[in-house]
Design a protein that fits this description.
Chain B: Pathway: Protein modification; protein neddylation. Chain B: Belongs to the ubiquitin-activating E1 family. ULA1 subfamily. Chain B: Keywords: Ubl conjugation pathway. Chain B: This is NEDD8-activating enzyme E1 regulatory subunit. The structure holds 2 protein chains of 2 kinds. Chain A is α/β, with parallel strands linked by helices. Helix content of chain A is 32%, strand content 17%. Chain A has 3 domains: 10-203 and 288-330, Rossmann fold (3-Layer(aba) Sandwich); 211-282, Arc Repressor Mutant, subunit A (Orthogonal Bundle); 348-436, Ubiquitin-like 2 activating enzyme e1b. Chain:  B, domain 3 (Structural Genomics Hypothetical 15.5 Kd Protein In mrcA-pckA Intergenic Region, Chain A), CATH 3.10.290.20. Chain A has helices at 11-18, 32-38, 52-62, 97-108, 126-130, 142-154, 211-216, 221-236, 250-267, 274-282, 289-308, 358-368, 392-397; strands at 45-48, 68-73, 113-118, 134-138, 172-178, 181-187, 317-321, 327-331, 348-352, 374-380, 383-388, 416-421, 430-436. In chain A, strands 3-2-1-4-5-6-7-8 form an 8-stranded mixed sheet, sandwiched between helices. In chain A, strands 9-13-12-10-11 form a 5-stranded mixed sheet, covered by helices on one side. The longest helix of chain A is centred in the last third of the chain and has 20 residues, at 289-308. Chain B has 3 domains: 25-191 and 534-573, Rossmann fold; 207-292, no CATH class; 299-424, no CATH class. Helices cover 48% and strands 8% of the residues of chain B. In chain B, the strands form 2 sheets. Chain B has an 8-stranded mixed sheet with strand order 3-2-1-4-5-6-9-10, sandwiched between helices. In chain B, strand 9 (562-565) and strand 10 (570-573) form a beta hairpin. The longest helix of chain B has 32 residues, at 367-398. The chains are: A alpha/beta, B alpha/beta.
Chain lengths: 442, 575
């Protein structure tokens, strides 16, 4: 007989985890304990973004049996979100997305704990990200993706033979949509391409019209709109001196539209309506619930595979489009050996005492690492700091640093040092990681 | 009552227009989707009535993605009660409501996603209602049947098929799900192709266009005007030059097009002037590949002409013969799209071309010449539209319909998209679910060594249905640790079914094995019809957009029987 409590409830998921099957992952071993294991404190999952994709991902994760979910998003809810961000209602407009989404899912799927974080990725220390067994993201900006990618890749640690230590590689599942198209991809740093390896895939949707077209030879309604926004607005400051364009303020948009229409009439061009105007000013990307549902679901299936090992992971990029028929295409993308983020050899450790001076470090770089005139930068308290530059006038500027101890300079264990050698022009920076025998860690 | 056939409100009363041009709250809410299917598409969605049979994970996920964009109304039919199991796969139930009618709970939780949407529910059993009140089903714009058994689907589809109510059928087993659209006839008004070829009429150029181009002397232009001459003018001039030198013929192959390209190249000034280099001349050269393709009637449009002609021929035959006047065919007036296609065929016969689209791609140019070109093409398109409308009136009056049977906005939409129109159709579920013996034989042969394939899974899904009919549950859907015991019976059902399907083939022994690979049998028993939520959500996303395509007549639906395999992340046709 079946056991009481939540056992029946999760029968669907437990079938996949407790029953042996011939088509499972290569090392998968079904086990009645697996289900409780995925609900233990060891399994924490981070969802980045609580918008069109994030809401779907949260729901899908909750109904896959996961109970320790974190959600980070820096936005508040807007009316135009409600056609697809289904965890929000009209009364929630203005509240933080992460908070409202967490409340809804906790209420609907009892037993699921969702911790919301209202803020940016950079607001969290690196330590925050270490706790997650998997990170899934539904972001709408290239910059945020790259930042997240850098965070995940920087967490990777290496063994003596420069191989990545598996437990330090957090799988990153990335989803993106635009209208009726989307993608889902699996990133395992150093095994698959990271997001930076294929940075050119994420082409910018910004339409940059040449200024001379806007100013002298407009042809399209869009040209008239951009002229009004870029050139007329800062000349007339219609809503106050130095008050910038707010694409969400309908009065701002309407002013731009009116000016654009005047210009359009002047040139015989079709006059833009409000929708087109706002679309151009805000670089609006069309969006519907259906595409977001598909991509998020695909991502969460991969999260489930990554954590349980029940099936092999997607290798490694899937395209989706349902404009004409429905097309799904899986492509194994390749790593970029020159990748700025994951193409580097792993940072070499430099072992010192926190009382040692910077000069000591430089001496070692010269004697043991083949450098002649090393220059060093490091990330101290979130800012890039130049420690020393062995270049003409800068040598004197930073000479004081040479006698300072590493502790005085704010350097801790695990600080990454970027080193270039002025004597070798065109050399890419080599990264080292500080290992202070007596020191505090970052 | 298919909304698609008689859309009378295209482009009128758009969702968002108000006197001040500021968007209404509704236009704001739907802004992101209005940019995809327009106000008229939204209107069609808001007039649609959707029936969901089966308030399971796939069903409710599909409906969710139709409620959010504002479908007019929905009805959920499900005779079951909410179980604990439902709470682990279905987002639209709650633990606190176990034991309540599932249709009721799901309807409430779906309705609250969008206050604009009306939703209700029925607890009737499908088979009972199909007998008792078949008329109920034909009142909907779209029916979605999720996890419905085969025998009921046969009756349901027979009912809906001839009434032109489209049906979406889907089944989920664990990490797998199949789906099929069933629609006798579905007209695609706006296909929204990715990269449509521009409609330039270069083979038989517009007189106004010729005059405009002839009035321009490239060699006499200063560098500003030379580098801001639209590529269309440049292309035309050198095309004419080539045609004059080649007895007036139009370039008919790659080599000839390249020859034109070379001529254009020879006209470039080459030096970089103070207005930048001559990008317009480069554009003219690359345009050669697409703008100089000989125009021919697209096959999808040709098909429509044939359909229209056949329909009119039959009408003629019926009215000529002494057939009784109750004959349905003669009595039923043709739908708008058929009237329009008939007119289009007539237009093509008379003019040798389709009505001009009227738009031009953007190109480097000064404002006055680009605008002038746009206006030339727009005026010509308007003239074609007037001519087309005149022909349409004649067609309508000819068969006893009023001259303005088709609203002006619909005529305009039709002409604008003339090149990409198509009729999409499938066989009935009855036919689709009994594939031709040749098809079955081919599929079995193809997959003999391949292992898991969509066809095998599809065959097994049907075998599972037979298993369920006999044993009252699905294979592996048991708490017994010996769930694999079901594999034997499933294998038998599968063999019987394959043999059934191959029955009429003389050489059944030549086909591949009719015995499903052991791995697949095992895997299906392992699933025990589990509703894995992320798989259901994926299918729900796909099916909801297919539903929207059917309701709006925009974008092209997928008509093949498809299988989603979340293990390999593939979505492949079964046959």
């Amino acid at each position: 007989q079946s056991s009481p409590g939540t056992d029946n409830r999760w029968r669907h998921v437990r079938r996949l985890l407790e029953r042996a099957g011939p088509l499972g992952g290569p090392e998968f071993e079904p086990d009645p304990e697996l289900f409780s294991a995925i609900r233990s404190d060891l399994v924490q999952i981070l969802v980045v973004g609580a918008g069109g994709l994030g809401c779907e991902m949260l729901k899908d994760l909750a109904l896959s049996g996961f109970v320790n979910l974190h959600l980070i998003d820096m936005d508040t809810i807007d009316l135009s979100n409600l056609n697809r961000q289904f965890l929000f209602r009209p009364k929630d407009i203005g509240r933080p997305k992460a908070v409202v989404a967490a409340e809804f899912v906790e209420r609907r799927v009892s037993g699921c704990r969702v911790t919301p974080h209202f803020g940016k990725l950079e607001d969290k220390p690196l330590e925050f990200y270490k706790q997650f067994m998997c990170i899934v993201c539904g972001l709408d900006s290239v910059q945020a993706r790259r930042r997240l990618n850098q965070i995940v890749c920087s967490l990777v640690q290496f063994d003596e033979s420069d191989q990545p230590i598996p437990t330090s590689v957090i799988p990153l599942i990335d989803g993106g949509t635009q209208g009726f198209q989307g993608h889902c991809r699996v990133v395992r740093a150093h095994a698959t391409p990271c997001l930076e390896c294929t940075a050119d895939l994420y082409s910018s949707t910004q339409q940059g019209f040449p200024l001379c077209t806007l100013a002298h030879t407009p042809r399209l309604p869009e040209h008239c709109i951009e002229f009004a926004r870029i050139m007329q607005w800062p000349q007339e400051w219609p809503f106050g001196e130095e008050v910038p364009v707010d694409g969400d303020d309908p009065h701002h948009v309407d002013w731009i539209r009116t000016e654009a229409c005047k210009r359009a009439r002047q040139f015989g061009i079709r006059e833009p309506d409000f929708r087109l105007t706002q679309g151009v000013v805000k670089h609006i990307i069309p969006a519907v619930a259906s595409t977001n549902a598909v991509i998020s679901a695909q991502c969460v299936t991969e999260v489930f595979k990554a954590i349980t090992g029940c099936y092999p992971l997607l290798n490694n990029f899937a395209n989706f489009s349902d404009i004409e028929g429905v097309a799904v295409n899986v492509v194994p993308l390749e790593r970029n050996p020159q990748c700025d983020v994951c193409g580097q050899p792993p940072p070499k450790p430099l072992t010192f005492n926190s009382r040692d001076s910077l000069q000591t470090v430089i001496n070692q770089l010269k004697s043991e690492h083949g450098m002649t005139r090393p220059s060093l930068t490091a990330c101290v308290e979130g800012r890039d700091v130049t420690l020393y530059m062995d270049l003409s006038f800068l040598r004197d500027q930073l000479a004081d640093n040479l006698d300072k101890s590493l502790a005085e300079l704010g350097l801790l264990s695990n600080t990454v040092l970027n080193v270039t050698d002025s004597a070798q022009s065109g050399m890419k920076p080599v990264t080292f990681v500080l290992n202070l025998e007596d020191g505090m860690e970052t | 009552n298919n909304n698609n056939n008689n859309k009378s409100n295209i482009n009128s009363h758009p969702v968002g227009r108000s006197r001040s041009q500021l968007p209404t709250p509704k236009a704001k809410k739907y802004d992101r989707q209005l940019r995809l299917w327009g106000d008229h598409g939204q209107q069609a969605i808001e007039q649609a009535r959707v029936l969901l049979i089966g308030a399971n994970a796939v069903g409710t996920e599909t409906l969710k993605n139709m409620v959010l964009p504002g479908v007019g109304s929905f009805t959920i039919m499900d005779h079951r009660r909410v179980t604990e199991e439902d709470c682990g796969s279905n987002f639209f139930v709650e633990l606190a409501r176990i034991g309540e009618p599932r249709a009721k709970v799901c309807a409430e939780l779906l309705r609250e996603l969008n206050e604009d949407v009306i939703g209700d529910f029925l607890e009737d059993r499908l088979d009972v209602l199909l007998q008792r009140d078949p008329g109920f089903f034909t009142g909907f714009s779209l029916v979605i049947a999720s996890g419905v058994r085969h025998s009921d689907l046969l009756v349901l589809s027979d009912l809906l098929y001839d009434r032109d109510v489209p049906l979406i059928v889907c089944q989920q087993h664990g990490m797998l799900a199949t789906c099929q659209l069933v629609a006798r006839e579905h007209f695609v008004w706006e296909a929204h192709p990715d990269n449509p070829l521009p409609d330039l009429r270069l083979e038989n150029p517009l007189p106004e266009f010729v005059a405009f181009c002839d009035a321009q002397d490239l060699s006499a232009m200063d560098s500003q005007r030379h580098s801001h001459t639209p590529w269309l003018v440049i292309l035309y001039k050198f095309l004419s030059k080539w045609r004059q030198a080649n007895a007036g013929k139009f370039p008919s192959n790659y080599a000839e097009r390249q020859a034109v390209r070379q001529l254009i190249r020879s006209g470039e000034r080459g030096e970089s002037d103070l207005h930048g280099d001559e990008e317009n001349w480069r554009q003219a050269q690359s345009a050669v590949t697409t703008a100089l393709l000989p125009s021919k009637l697209p096959s999808n449009v040709n098909e429509l002409f044939k359909l229209a002609d056949q329909f009119w021929l039959r009408r003629q035959q019926l009215s000529d013969s002494s057939a009784p006047s109750e004959d349905r065919q003669a009595a039923v007036p043709p739908s708008n799209w058929l009237l329009l296609c008939r007119t289009l065929a007539e237009f093509y016969r008379q003019r040798g071309c389709l009505p001009l689209c009227g738009t031009l791609p953007d190109m480097v140019s000064d404002s006055d010449r680009y605008v002038a070109l746009l206006n030339i093409y727009r005026r010509a398109a308007d003239a074609d539209l007037v001519e087309f409308s005149r022909l349409l009136r004649v067609v309508c009056l000819d068969i006893g319909l009023s001259a303005d049977s088709v609203p002006a906005s619909q005529i305009a939409l039709f002409c604008k998209n003339a090149r990409h129109l198509r009729l999409v159709k499938t066989a009935s579920y009855r036919e689709l679910s009994r594939p031709l013996p040749q098809t079955v034989a081919r599929c079995l042969e193809e997959t003999a060594e391949a292992g898991p394939s969509p066809f095998w899974w599809y065959l097994l899904f049907h075998a599972c249905d037979r298993f369920h009919t006999e044993f009252g549950r699905f294979p592996g859907d048991t708490d017994d640790v010996n769930f694999l015991a079901d594999a034997g019976q499933l294998k038998l059902k599968c063999q019987q079914l394959a043999q059934d399907w191959l029955a009429s083939l003389a050489t059944t022994s030549a086909a591949g094995p009719t015995s499903a690979p052991e791995d697949l049998l095992h895997e299906l028993c392992r699933f025990g019809r589990a509703e894995v939520h992320s798989v259901a959500a994926w299918m729900g996303g796909v099916l909801s957009q297919e539903g929207i395509k059917l309701i709006t007549g925009q974008f092209v639906p997928e008509t093949r029987t498809m299988l989603y395999d979340a293990v390999s992340q593939t979505f492949l046709p079964v046959f």
